[in-house]
Amino acid sequence: MRYQFDDFEFDSIDLILLRAGTALAIRHNEAKLLALLLANTHRVLSKEEILDQVWQGKVVSEQAVFQNISHLRALFGNDAIKTFAKRGYQWQRQVTAVNTAPVTHSLTTQDTVHTPVTATPADAPVRHRVSNWLGVSLISLLVLLAFIFVVQRDEVQSTHFAITYLPFEGTEPEQWQLQDTMQLNFTLLTTLSAAHFRTSQELLYPEVTTQHPVILTASARQIDALWYLTFWLKGPAGQWQGVLHGATPQAVQQKLYQHLSQPVVASLLQHTQSPDLRLAMLTQAHQRAPKDLILLGALVNAYLDVQELEKAMAMAEKLAVLAKAQANSQQEGRALAYQGEILLRKNLVDLSLIRLDAALQALEISQDLRAQADVLHSRSWLHHLQRDYEQVKASLLHSAQLARQTQDIARELDALTYLSIMASKNQQDDDKYLYLRLAEEKMRYYELPVYHFAKVPFHYAIFADKPADKEPHYRRVLEYTTLTPNHWVAQSSRKFLVRYYLREARFEEAESLISSVRQDNAENAYLSVMYAAAVQTESELLPLALRAFELAQLSGERRIGLDVALLLCQMPVESGVNSDFYAQYISEHATSDWRTQNEAQLLALNLMAAGR
């Protein structure tokens, strides 16, 4: 049976899910659960029945049902599946069921077109058989034409991936002239340097995005007999980066063309995706191109984003093995760095340090100074956990030095400002001001845009003890970021001030800050939620909270999602809020520090023990 709803189509026999004709990755049990829900839209399915039908006698807890329901809601929307307290779950979207012939296996999942065919009885008149034979032939022809159309459509769409590239750093520009391919159209922009674009991206990208929506910058270097390329792409929906190497610039360019031709790269740069959908897309892309190490690294990050640490470690191990087999020290170093981060999230500090040290050794072979700087930055936190401030300081100063050698201004300043924070955490008052002043001096020396300077008052606000003492510093941050209101320091400062003003009943000032930002994103939506919770009725609060949660899910802002979910759990039953779903969301996604910060509310809702 095939089911159609919204722009989705689901084959309950082959367990294949399509969206607008493109196959989506879906786990086996999730697909079986979806098939069960779609076959029973007329009734509520109990947890016991779901366990029996989907897991078929296997010993699993009810948590498995909650988790798979949550994943399906992430794919189709929270309102697709309704929870009935103490009864179970029911599908809510309108569904059309279509009986179809078996899938033709010679076609790929995303290109298959299914058309119902009526079987002919054995004793039917010959003319009916001829008629049916002609009908089947016609249908087969239509299937073939549809298949060709889909393939040609995809090819046409892929050629529309236009990339503007800036002159490559670290080498002669004529050695790296990119040529158009069947899938890629390149335009060279010589009026802007790669270094200037990266340090002024918050200001420059909005100015050029209409004509140049996807911008490629890169840095090339030759080490012994090999060429190494580090590249970055900026698009409307996010960023993408990778490293490649080869015997000649031409060989590296061919690898770059091959990688950028992967449809998932264009899609993730141009269209915002939720973390779960991003993971599904990268999983499918990795299956299609298992030797593309950049895709595999992105898949590790995707698993980290959804907190699936075991799967992230498995993919990081796979990346390390493949990189070693290909004698690719750059990717091997990155794989070891991923493993170090995963072990840190598991609170295995000593093992994490061992992996990071191994990562540094691998990255030294290719002289990848940027990646080494990042590993040293990560290692500084481990030394902080070990209460070894001198090692913290040494790691971050070394990180800043390597960044300076490769002329990576952003990394150098990040290392110095982070050292200021680490000094504050370790009660090193002289150092915390020393390195913050040093960072400010370098901002002036490099003649950076004003929004970079916002980090200075932002750090002074962190150093201040009382909210009233923090206020003027956060106000200064907003002055520096007038032209870049969505920069992270501006968002953090605005959030603190709105919360502070609401607590002090300074409602007009809070409302003024909220109305000063226009972009519809999770951060700004949550400001409206905070204001509504303080001064408006529940009927006005509910749509704002639901919108903020939706945006948080789409952008991967887990902390905002958790804050809004906690608020929705406190809404009265009469509001119609599915508190069971939001309680389960908290159970699955809450981190230990978030639980600590919200302990009183969680205890009041009897949610403190959930997920531990």
Question: What do these coordinates show?
Answer:
This protein is α+β, with helices and mostly antiparallel strands and 612 residues long. Among the domains are: 2-98, Winged helix-like DNA-binding domain superfamily/Winged helix DNA-binding domain (Arc Repressor Mutant, subunit A, Orthogonal Bundle), CATH 1.10.10.10; 161-272, Double Stranded RNA Binding Domain (2-Layer Sandwich); 520-611. It has 28 helices and 12 strands. The strands form 3 sheets. Strands 4-3-2-1-7 form a 5-stranded antiparallel sheet. The protein has a 5-stranded mixed sheet with strand order 9-8-10-11-12. Strands 5-6 form a two-stranded antiparallel sheet. β10 (215-223) and β11 (226-235) form a beta hairpin. α11 packs antiparallel against α12, α16 packs antiparallel against α17 and α16 (409-425) runs parallel beside α19 (455-463). The two termini are 40 Å apart. 36% of the residues are buried. Keywords: DNA-binding.
